Fold each of these.
Amino acid sequence: MLSNCSACGKVFMKISKPVCPDCVRKELETVKRIRDYLKPKEKRTAPLAQISRDLDIPIRYIEYLIREKYFDLTRYPSLQYKCKNCDTLITLGEYCRSCSEKLRNNLLAAKEKAEKNEKDNDGSGSHFYKSRL
Ligand SMILES: [Zn+2]
Ligand SMILES: [Zn+2]
């Protein structure tokens, strides 16, 4: 399937990742640089900001690589990224525990509301379309 690379926008044949082979290669090179950087014991717990500064890699990009599961986080405990919704540091998924809980509740509430609206609108749906014509 042809798709646009989510990193550089180039059209490529999508297999499993949303980025093109060139960008995957770039990702792997960057991952290798970060792994090498974290190899010495004293660097293993270096915070993201320091890695970013020393290697000249944007923090967002490092966070993205962590999210893509390029790193064994039990070996690199400092590789955490921010929850999409708040400033809590996480190592898994997109949201911290409390935000994903909140989101799930919101989703449930929205679903219930939608179902209720559907019931309330029974029979009046045609009216909606007529008024738009
Ligand atoms: Zn690309
Ligand atoms: Zn959160």
Amino acid sequence: MKRIAVIGGGAAGFMAAITAKEHEPKANVVILEKGDKTLSKVKISGGGRCNVTNACFNISDLCKNYPRGGGQLKKSFGHFYTKDTIEWFNKRGVELHTEKDNRMFPISNQSQTIIDCLQSEIKKLGIRLSLKSPVSKITIENNDFTLAVNKESLSFDKLIIACGGSPKISGLKWLQELGYVVADPVPSLFTFNMPTESIKELMGVVAPNVSIKTQGSKQKQNGPLLITHWGMSGPAILKISAFEARTLAHLNYQFKVQVNWSDLSEKDCLEKIGEQGNKKISKNPFELPNRLWLFLLKKIDINSESTWNQLGKKNKNRLINVLMNDVYEVSGKTTFKEEFVTCGGVSLSNINMQTMESKLHAGIYFAGEILDIDGVTGGFNFQAAWTTGFLAGKNSAS
Ligand SMILES: Cc1cc2nc3c(=O)[nH]c(=O)nc-3n(C[C@H](O)[C@H](O)[C@H](O)COP(=O)(O)OP(=O)(O)OC[C@H]3O[C@@H](n4cnc5c(N)ncnc54)[C@H](O)[C@@H]3O)c2cc1C
């Protein structure tokens, strides 16, 4: 009887164990979890609602949401992607609903629904769950894997490593010792602190569609921007924190951002200004929240009570500059409580992305956040866990 061990009782580990057992019902499948409970991240995910996946059904578009791993995941998504996740949960009695921004949640809006589903599947299939079982070492001999778990040595034919991200490189040393290339872990998905910027007085204001970049970078991100009492947050900021996670860590989170508040070109801005005639400047034509508009006018000393046709050339230029290239100083970051991930982990150059099998050791498979894969917020991180978990489970069983 084939013995398969899954290291880690998170989303990826459960998906891998269930898929392995379904493909090879005679196999002896065990989940080894170091903690005293499983699926802890699923529980707190999406503010307790669990953003399971995203209603993005085009694989090329889906891949663009992964600052690391997007290109390589294309191969894996060809086997199991967002549509398969929805079907997988549907088949097991969990219906998902889609929100305006394409995020998908269980219709109960409770992460416990996902936990109940995964836990009842492992019970039904007879998968063994061993809690308080930290794996501290893997020894490889011929085609046999021996795991050091507490004071015991346990032997298996196949291994699925799904033990999640590690915030420190020291947590991945045991894999480096086996020869795996590991990308240094740094945080991804965080908000920006701006202790010296007075824009914080507008906390709660949302600019609906900004284009933003860090100074010196060419990469722009678009989307809503939320002003908070500590600085800036919202989808546009979170995307920058993800796509530039490594650069920003290198800068020790001291940098400047450049905001284009309405994502218009200079020509469009000038055209809009030209259309205003003798209307008052306090009425903004750029569809910005009024508090933000008045803040920007004050910042460049333009009297909001004057009219547009009183605006001289110099002030027009200053206005266009503050609308399109408004600079703010960032000093530090704050964790985004709804979702955060680790950038870094086991290099995908060591993995066959069609099967999730290690290229270094036949019979070892990887799944989930332990890999150097991470997505922006929106259900993409769980999707990577479901996809890689499914492939690792299926191929370990075959
Ligand atoms: C607050 C928060 C909210 C989030 N919300 C969302 C969301 O709504 N949507 C989304 O897509 N993503 C979300 N994410 C990201 C998502 O939770 C992770 O990407 C995903 O859980 C990764 O799954 P995993 O199974 O790879 O790792 P994990 O969930 O971290 O599971 C790994 C498991 O392995 C165990 N383990 C570790 N080392 C060992 C060892 N040596 N031996 C045995 N067991 C071990 C751990 O205890 C853990 O239980 C959120 C993350 C956080 C922190």
